[in-house]
Every structure is written in structure tokens, then in C-alpha cells.
Amino acid sequence: MRSAHPPSLPLKASLGTHALLGLKNIKMTCSPTTLYFMLGERCLRNCSYCAQRNSSGGIYLSRVMWPPVAPEEVERGMETAIKRGARRICVQTLDYPHLLEDLRGLSNILFSHIPVSLSIPPLSEEEMLLLKEMGVEIAAVSLDAATEEIFTLHRGAGVGNPYTWEGMWEAMRRSREIFGSTVTHVIVGLGESDEDLLRLFEKLKVEGVYPALFAFTPLPSTPLSGISPPPLGRYRAVQLMHHLIFHMDGEGEGVLLEGGRIVGFRWEGIEDALLSGNYMRTSGCGWCNRPYYNESPRGPLYNHPAAPSPGEIRRGMDEMRSYGVRTFEG
């Protein structure tokens, strides 16, 4: 029996998702292992780094294009996508009226096959409970910024948004309590120091929140379009710090800082982490690899969607040294 679909549902999908669903014939050097969707036509908010901001007419989110997709096309292609390796569904929701109604309209299609993650605005307890009833596994509330000051400037009152730093933390705690675990997003390159990121990681670990790392990407039609992405060596050092804290149960004392900048690591097992290159891989929910979300397929890669090669692992070390990281001790 076919599902009933709401008319004109504002659903889009990444190009890689279109390919996995069998809707487009696209040659991909690395296929996504998650189906990525975006829900909403126009966001109410005005985050200064986002192409979907209210005052922008962007068709991108980061570097990714999001062509429209009909619910019935998703329904027809879901079995094909799973056979091709899709293991999770991720829905990036804009902040707009009737969001929950639209999610409910999609729930029979999207929420009944493989695990589902949502990236959501800071919803109430009642609203999150409704999402859980729909079958959502993870509801991520994104900090994006590493400090309250940067958050307020780019995601809060500084751009006319109602979001607050403490309000986001409260929403993350609600999500963790209701869903059992939760994820947030952290963008590297919005003006924070490495020490800011370390202190944020320490607090997130205590709170039981896992941060997915993104490199800042300058996008046309945004106020930050003229800002450069973070140096690759810096991003590698932050990735290694993230890996040691969240995947090797390390503590912040093992990160050596000078003037707020990472200059070394003293951590038992760091050699294995460096040799595997796993710290360079995309971080996020299970099976999230986000191919080329932050970068062109031509590179350089900030987040590796698959296991890095031996040459890429060596370059990762060289990149960190070029940034000024000089100590790697186990």
C-alpha cells in the first residue's frame, strides 16, 4: 500500500543521495554511506556562515548542492540505496514553521528502513518526544561555534537570531536524555583558538555529547564569504585532539599548548592513532562519511570519507608539523 505524501513537501537531497537512490547517474570517487536530505525552503534564521540563511538565496549547504526530490522518488529508490551501501538517513532541517508536521509527513518513508539522524533547531521536550515516537534515533542540536562569544556573533543575537548559548546546551541535554545519546556540530575556523576547542571538547565529553567536526567553508552570498578556511595542518591537529579525547578516552592534559595553539601531544597510544590515520576520517553519527562536504573531490581533503592511504597519512603528519606541532609522544 502506498504512503500518502503531503503536497509540495520542501524536501531536497544531496547529489550523492540522488545517485544512491538511482535518480541520477553520477560518477562518484567515494559513495556516501548515509542518505543526506534537507527539509525546508526558507530558514527563519540568519547564521552568518550559512548559505541557507534567511537573507540568502543559496542552493548549497556547505559545498553540497541539494536538488529537490519528491517523496515518492525516495520511497521507490530506498531499497536500491540500501543495496548500494546506505546505512543511515540524515535529515538537515531548516528552522521554519510546520517543521514537525513535515517530518511527520515523511516519517513513513524515511524513518522505517535504516537508523535516522536529524539535525534540528533547539526544540522543546514535547517536540523531541514526538520525534522519538516517529522513530528518530539521534536528534543533533548544533553549537557550530566553540565559544559563547563566537556563537552570539554568528549564530545568536549578533545576526538577529533568538538562539542563545545556554539555550543550545539545554537543548543538547534534553536530546541526550530523551534519545540516550546525542551529537552536535562544531565548525573549526570561525575565530576560535585551539585552546577554545580543547575546553569545548572537555565540556562536551562531560555532558555526554559527541561533536562532529567541520572545517569552515566560505560560501558566496554569506557575510563570511571572504574568510579563508582553516589551515589544513591546524585542522589535522584539531582532528587528532578530537580523536584522542573522544575515541581513546584521553584527557586534555595530553594536549600541549602555547599561546592557545596546539604544539604537541603526549598520549599513550598516539602512535597507533597516527599510523592508522583514523583521526583524519569524517566524524559524526555512525556511518556518516559526508563525501566532499567541506572540499572539492580534487582536494585537499579536510575530512576523509574513507580510510586514508599511507601517503595521505604521511601528509597528515607533515601538515601538522607545518602548523607547528613538534611533539608526538606516547
Radius of gyration: 19 Å
Question: In CATH terms, what is the architecture?
Answer: Alpha-Beta Barrel
Distance between the termini: 59 Å
Beta fraction: 15-25%
Topology, number of strands = 12
Low-confidence runs of at least 5 consecutive residues: 1-7
Helix fraction by DSSP (H/I, runs of at least 4): 25-40%
Determine the oligomeric state from the structure.
single chain
Silhouette: globular
Structural class: alpha/beta
Largest sheet: 5 strands, mixed
CATH fold descriptor: TIM Barrel
Task: Please render the helix and strand layout as text.
Blueprint: E1 11-13, H1 15-20, E2 34-39, E3 60-61, E4 64-65, H2 71-83, E5 88-93, H3 99-110, E6 116-120, H4 125-134, E7 138-141, H5 148-154, H6 165-179, E8 182-188, H7 194-207, E9 209-215, H8 232-246, E10 255-258, E11 261-266, H9 270-276, H10 310-323, E12 327-329
Parallel strand pairs: 2-5, 5-6, 6-7, 8-9, 11-12
Antiparallel strand pairs: 1-2, 3-4, 10-11
Features:
330 residues, alpha/beta, TIM Barrel, five-stranded mixed sheet, three-stranded mixed sheet, 34% helix, 17% strand
Q: Your description of this structure?
A:
With 330 residues, the protein is α/β, with parallel strands linked by helices. The protein has a single domain, classed as TIM Barrel (Alpha-Beta Barrel), CATH 3.20.20. Helices cover 34% and strands 17% of the residues. The chain has ten helices and twelve strands. The chain has helices spanning 15-20, 71-83, 99-110, 125-134, 148-154, 165-179, 194-207, 232-246, 270-276, 310-323, and strands at 11-13, 34-39, 60-61, 64-65, 88-93, 116-120, 138-141, 182-188, 209-215, 255-258, 261-266, 327-329. Strands 1-2-5-6-7 form a five-stranded mixed sheet. It has a three-stranded mixed sheet with strand order 10-11-12, covered by helices on one side. α7 (194-207) links the parallel β8 (182-188) and β9. α7 (194-207) packs parallel to α8 (232-246). The longest helix is centred in the middle third of the chain and has 15 residues, at 165-179. The protein is globular and about 55 Å long. The N and C termini lie far apart (59 Å). Residues 1-7 have low confidence and may be disordered.
